[in-house]
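Anyone up for a design puzzle?
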């Protein structure tokens, strides 16, 4: 059974999601109060689903505290549509951002995809180098130099940095980066990758995996 911690003050929404995911042997324990959620033994859960608009504490603050103390995948589930919230969420360390309203089927797909990626990373025993990239606030540094990135470039590169060495499919990149636009051929993503490579001054750091997506090496 997959055990998920949820911090969500919309109890009706939480109950509906809980009932839907139960059919896939996924158990959700929800807390309306973020302080109670943080004291519930976060490390015993497999994943955190986190709302942003919470009583007494902003969800981004909760996200920051969880990232600082625990190694657990985080999906932000929020009705807040400000792109800055999404960018900051990824900058802090959230793994995915699913805007409300959404179909519970999509949440199930995000959960299984994220847990599968975490599992592969752990089993592979990857020792992912991170010294060349450093995140300070909402700025990414490469080899000690601050990168001047558009919101879309920041989101894409931050995702690749967080999963360095692991291929991210085009769909994963598109679904978790709300700042970018994409046409049916996916040309916008290719343009963004090209601009990031130029700003890194290294065309070999981001590799295209034919028929799949991209990875940072």
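Challenge accepted. My sequence:
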């Amino acid at each position: 059974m997959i055990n998920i911690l949820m911090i969500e003050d919309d109890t009706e929404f939480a109950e509906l999601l809980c009932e839907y995911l139960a059919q896939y042997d996924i158990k959700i324990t929800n807390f309306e109060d973020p302080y109670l959620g943080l004291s519930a033994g976060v490390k015993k859960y497999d994943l955190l689903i986190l709302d942003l608009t919470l009583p007494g504490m902003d969800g981004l603050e909760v996200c920051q505290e969880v990232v600082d103390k625990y190694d657990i995948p985080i999906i932000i589930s929020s009705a807040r549509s400000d792109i800055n919230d999404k960018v900051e969420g990824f900058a802090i360390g959230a793994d995915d951002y699913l805007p409300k309203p959404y179909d519970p089927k999509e949440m199930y797909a995000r959960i299984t995809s994220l847990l599968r990626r975490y599992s592969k990373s752990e089993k592979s025993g990857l020792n992912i180098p991170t010294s060349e990239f450093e995140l300070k606030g909402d700025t990414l540094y490469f080899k000690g130099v601050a990168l001047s990135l558009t919101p879309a470039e920041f989101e894409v590169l931050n995702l690749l940095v967080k999963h360095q060495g692991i291929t991210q499919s085009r769909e994963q990149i598109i679904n978790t980066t709300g700042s970018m636009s994409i046409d049916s051929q996916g040309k916008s993503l290719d343009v963004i990758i090209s601009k990031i490579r130029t700003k890194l001054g290294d065309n070999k750091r981001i590799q295209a995996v034919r028929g799949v997506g991209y990875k940072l090496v």
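A detail worth pointing out: Residues 133-216 form a domain with the Arc Repressor Mutant, subunit A fold (CATH 1.10.10.10).
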